[in-house]
Amino acid sequence: MGSELKYFAVLAITVAALLHSTAAIETHVVGDEFGWIVPPGGHYAYEAWASGHKFSVGDILEFNFTTGDQDVAMVTKEAFDSCNSTSPIELKTTGPANFTLDTIGSYYFIGTMDKHCELGQKLAINVTAHSGSPTPSPSPKPSPTPRGPVTYVVGDHFGWIVPPGGELAYSAWAYGKTFYVGDTLEFNFTTGDQDVAMVTKQAYESCNFNKSQITILTTGPAYIKLNLTGEYYFIGTMDKHCELGQKLAINVTTNPGGPSASPTPAPAPTPRGPVTYIVGDQLGWFVPGKYDYSAWANGKTFIVGDTLVFNFINGTQDVAVVTKAVFDNCTTNSTLAVFKNSPVNIIFNTTGEHYFTSTYDRHCELGQKLAINVTAKSTGTATSPSSSTTPSSHAPSAHSPAASAPYNSATPSNINGSGYFFTFLLIGLAFFH
Hints:
This protein is α/β, with parallel strands linked by helices. It folds into three domains: 2-128, Immunoglobulin-like (Sandwich); 151-253, Cupredoxins -  blue copper proteins (Immunoglobulin-like, Sandwich); 275-432, Cupredoxins -  blue copper proteins (Immunoglobulin-like), CATH 2.60.40. Helices cover 14% and strands 25% of the residues. The chain has helices at 2-22, 44-51, 77-82, 168-174, 201-206, 292-297, 324-329, and strands spanning 27-29, 55-56, 60-63, 72-75, 90-92, 97-100, 105-110, 122-128, 151-153, 179-180, 184-187, 196-199, 216-217, 222-225, 230-235, 247-253, 275-278, 302-303, 307-310, 319-322, 337-339, 344-348, 352-357, 369-375, 386-387, 403-407. The strands form six sheets. It has a five-stranded mixed β-sheet. A five-stranded mixed β-sheet has the order 10-16-15-12-13. A five-stranded mixed β-sheet has the order 25-17-19-22-26, with no helix packed on it. Helix 2 (44-51) packs parallel to helix 4 (168-174). The chain is globular. Residues 1-22, 133-139, 260-266 and 379-433 have low confidence and may be disordered.
């Protein structure tokens, strides 16, 4: 009897091992296409990313970053909470970096470079055991499965708020979700603190809208049914909420198992006047990590007459207007113009590609660079510029006048310290202090 029990015990262990070995191992690319960066606005971006994934023992986390620009450390919960990188469990400085999730429980990761953790480069996940069911080899992705209507809670447990770091939060929430005709969006917010409106793509991108021409839902929770296919755009209309990232864009398709719906007619472009964009929003112009400013520019439309405002602390940064070759190679000893006094206001007078960086040592190589494309001017009547600035205690002194210049890529001599002057106050850059 004892030998039989021993036999069955060994058999059970063998079967369990086989089940574990055949369980599907998944590689999770942290941040998906954004990779492992200092997110433009706080840790919510990676928290939102993790909420859409299930992590099991044996899975792999892949941190994609440029070697020298970022790093990643596995740390304790206490180090994660306090952003203490002095004694990491494991530190990897070469990208991409992979971590195998060997045990169940909580895992904590941070970037250890200067202020990267404090600025939101941190990820906490929970790892569970595999179900134990053998998983067949990967097969071609099946056709979408018909399903009934689904109600999506925007932002999940965070709800509809001004996210602590920019629109990446809601982009991350929507990523990977499939929205069908007949589904419903639920915007959870406290009445009086937030609101939500469905707007055109142009209003979404510029945060420039006329409240008298849109329907604003002011009572939370607000429910919006997706009745037609096409792109939907939502924003918060309260003071600067849109500029600070309270915005959501989704695409709605036809449910393969439901009734078809006529495509949503594309709305006519809404003419707009000049818009003032704050580069990096509340983060300002600094050394951010290689992909931050491309992420900031993504989804924005720049037209002739628009203005870029570069906010920084004088003596720590500058703004250099450069050619594409200089931008690509970071050979900043050859520039079209350099501005040293914050804020720097650049007005676009021509269409085409425009390139900006810094002449400070290695700032360009470390990611302080911005490339944008300016399109033709809107055909509508120009209105007053809309600004995403907020009052600040860091307004320039009389000895450091703000640079404001019309920008013409064809004639660099047009870039100077004179021209149109905009009296915008700087965003508070408290995290530098």
